[in-house]
Amino acid sequence: MQYELIIFDWDGTLMDSVPRIVSCMQAAALEAEWGELSAAEVEDIIGLGLPEAIAQLCPGILPAQAERLRERYSHHFVTADATPMLFFCWG
Question: How does pLDDT run across 70-87, given as a tens digit for each residue?
Answer without folding.
Answer: 999 999 999 988 888 778
